[in-house]
Amino acid sequence: KKLTACLQGQQGVDADKRSKKLPLTTLAQCLMEGSAVLGDDSLLGKMLRLCGEAEDKLAQELIHFELQVERDVIEPLFVLAEVEIPNIQKQRKHLAKLVLDMDSSRTRTSSRLTCTILWPKK
């Protein structure tokens, strides 16, 4: 849960929806709109367009990275935390019970052997 909070986009949503909610994408759109208003004739307009394209590429890379982290790190950890660890804990409890049963059986067997040795049947 803490890892998913670190992601800037929403978890489990496709790339297009993530892109719309990302601040980098919004900034890129604003820069592109500003460049359209100023036009490519002005130096500032060209600079805004260039920066907008760069921000858009950064946003796409961030989305790609977050999808990859979600697929390669978060989902396996979720399966580990939600499925594997409870199974391991259940198996440990069962093993502890079996060990106790084995110890009590061993004690009973040992005491029977002791009784048999001390008081042999006639």
Please give a handful of descriptors for the protein shown.
122 residues, mainly alpha, 85% helix, 0% strand
Average pLDDT number: 86
Distance between the termini: 71 Å
**How much helix, percentage-wise, in residues?**
over 70%
Poorly predicted residue ranges = none
Give the overall silhouette: rod-shaped
Which percent band covers the strand fraction?
under 5%
Following the backbone from N to C, one meets helices and strands in this order, namely HHHH
Keywords: GTPase activation
InterPro entries: AH/BAR_dom_sf, BAR_dom, RHG17/44/SH3BP1-like
GO molecular function, one term: GTPase activator activity
Protein name: BAR domain-containing protein
Written overview of the protein:
It is a single chain. The protein is mainly α and 122 residues long. It has a domain at 2-85. 85% of the residues lie in helices and 0% in strands. It is built from 4 helices and no strands. The protein has helices spanning 2-6, 15-21, 23-38, 43-118. 11% of the residues are buried. The model has no long low-confidence stretch (mean pLDDT 86). It comes from Buteo japonicus. This is BAR domain-containing protein. InterPro entries: AH/BAR_dom_sf (IPR027267), BAR_dom (IPR004148), RHG17/44/SH3BP1-like (IPR047165). One of its GO terms (molecular function) is GTPase activator activity. Pfam families: BAR.
